[in-house]
Amino acid sequence: MKRRFPSEIRTCEMHTGGEPVRIVTAGYPPIPGATILDKRRYARERLDHLRRFLMHEPRGHNDMYGVIPVEPDHPEADLAVLFCHNEGYSTMCGHATIAMARWAVDSGVVAAREPRATVRIQCPCGLVTAHVQCRDGRAGMVHFESVGAFAPLLDAVVEVEGAGRVEVDIGYGGAFYAFAPAARFGLDVRTSPARALVDGAWAVTCAAKSQLELDHPEHPDLAFLYGTILTDGGIGDDRPSANACVFADRQVDRSPTGSGVTARMAIQKARGLAGVGDERRFSSVTGSVFTGCIIGETMVGEHEAVTVLVGGEAHYTGEARFRGEEGDPLRGGFTVR
């Protein structure tokens, strides 16, 4: 099938805690599908050249992150989105949800209501409700209510290349992550070089993917390990607990990772370290902070689960109009490491 490039794709550029959010605002072709997971599958199989066009160089970079609005199929949703990155399409993204909620209010997709507006976003993992603080018609701080989060595996042992037997926790917060203390690899998430953190986390991801079996009760498309989060070993009660998230193809999250915060709270609940009403703070490689608070208990299939309220701020960096010139041999995008 011949790849077709639109004459122009327009985007709104934002960041949440330093992590980029490239929101498509015009020019993307319609993405058909009865459900949002059908749309995600169609985009992956038929339109992936446009993901590479926007995420990869020369328009993006290895750590770019994008949002593609699509028609919702959930009756309560104000809008629906697909999340994309250097490797493909994720099922949930907290930092992008925070940015999308602010953008939806500022752009008029959802009316700005003081003191806060409610934005219901259908994500591939389910419906996420965001609460956007509004003042003088402008959006600010955002909190979103997670989908059901759970911890299917605690202290699971994997054989990690170069590190031997490592105990990891697996948490789901809209996506599955493996968690391990950075100190297990002789690293400090606040001071160690990013490359060392990436190497350690990537080794865990590779080991966990090959040695652990994941399952999601609602849909098999949700049952994959998205990445690994190395932590400082704290729980974020007296001061923010630092973590470094490496996901997709060795991509480093500059934010504290909203879905990761959700999963960390689910793990704390499973370990008896946090309960309903308890709030924790988590920081990233940039020093930015998200809050996480358990606001309810629920079930996801047979898993005891929680609903987490995650808070953070997003900011605008600009707008863009991207084109692919005929005859440009690199217009489809490329990567260099």
Give a topology summary.
Blueprint: E1 9-16, E2 19-26, H1 36-46, H2 48-55, E3 66-70, E4 79-84, E5 89-90, H3 94-106, E6 116-123, E7 126-135, E8 138-145, E9 150-160, E10 164-172, E11 176-181, H4 194-211, E12 225-231, E13 241-247, E14 251-252, H5 258-270, E15 279-283, E16 289-300, E17 303-312, E18 314-322
Parallel strand pairs: 2-3, 4-6, 11-12, 13-15
Antiparallel strand pairs: 1-2, 1-18, 3-4, 4-5, 6-7, 7-8, 8-17, 9-10, 10-11, 12-13, 13-14, 15-16, 16-17
Number of domains: 2
Provide the β-strand percentage band.
35-45%
Q: Can you write the helix and strand succession as a string? A: EEHHEEEHEEEEEEHEEEHEEEE
CATH-scheme architecture of the largest domain: Roll
Structural class: alpha+beta
What does the main sheet amount to? 18 strands, mixed
Distance between the termini: 29 Å
> What is the number of strand segments?
18
Main CATH class of the largest domain: Alpha Beta
CATH topology of the largest domain: Diaminopimelate Epimerase, Chain A, domain 1
Radius of gyration: 19 Å
User: How many separate helices?
Assistant: 5
How would you characterize this protein structure?
The protein has 337 residues and is α+β, with helices and mostly antiparallel strands. It folds into 2 domains: 9-144 and 316-322, Diaminopimelate Epimerase, Chain A, domain 1 (Roll), CATH 3.10.310; 150-312, Diaminopimelate Epimerase, Chain A, domain 1, CATH 3.10.310. It has helices spanning 36-46, 48-55, 94-106, 194-211, 258-270, and strands at residues 9-16, 19-26, 66-70, 79-84, 89-90, 116-123, 126-135, 138-145, 150-160, 164-172, 176-181, 225-231, 241-247, 251-252, 279-283, 289-300, 303-312, 314-322. The chain has an 18-stranded mixed β-sheet that branches. The longest helix is centred in the middle third of the chain and has 18 residues, at 194-211. The two termini are 29 Å apart. The model has no long low-confidence stretch (mean pLDDT 97).
